[in-house]
Design brief:
Helix content: under 10%
Structural class: mainly beta
Shape: globular
Distance between the termini: 28 Å
Number of helices: 0
Strand content: 35-45%
Radius of gyration: 16 Å
Number of strands: 10
Length: 128
């Protein structure tokens, strides 16, 4: 999983896009959860002291089903783009990353699928 913001230097209050890519680097096709913010992945901002910035919107959801899966062949990727409006980033430096996590035991999925947790690369964001 990789995270790539459209820019790494922004003005306070500026909204920017955050691009995510999940790639099957294995040799076999696998079923994975479709890319869905606060369901299959979370985007995280940490300030300079290491504390996580609060996410300003909370998603309630029902258990996932087989329709929430997609087959990802070797070398194929899933993509998602979100904007930064759910975080109040004031002046300073932040570390941005994303976590794709399918370890929830409370799903209603019958098909086999990949279960695990992947953390993306870290990107430094400067707010001026």
């Amino acid at each position: 999983m990789t995270v790539a913001p459209e820019k790494t230097r922004i003005q306070e209050g500026e909204v920017f896009q955050i691009n995510l890519t999940l790639t099957n680097t294995g040799e076999n096709p696998i079923n994975v959860w479709k890319m869905s913010e606060q369901t299959s992945y979370n985007i995280l901002f940490f300030n300079s002291d290491g504390s996580m910035m609060p996410y300003l919107w909370v998603n309630s959801r029902i258990p996932l089903t087989d329709e929430d899966l997609t087959e990802l062949n070797p070398g194929e990727s899933l993509y998602s783009t979100v904007d930064s409006t759910c975080w109040n980033l004031t002046k300073g430096e932040y570390t941005l990353n994303a976590v794709y996590d399918t370890t929830s035991p409370d799903e209603d999925i019958q098909k086999p699928y990949w279960i695990g947790r992947i953390k993306s690369n870290n990107v430094t964001i400067t707010v001026e």
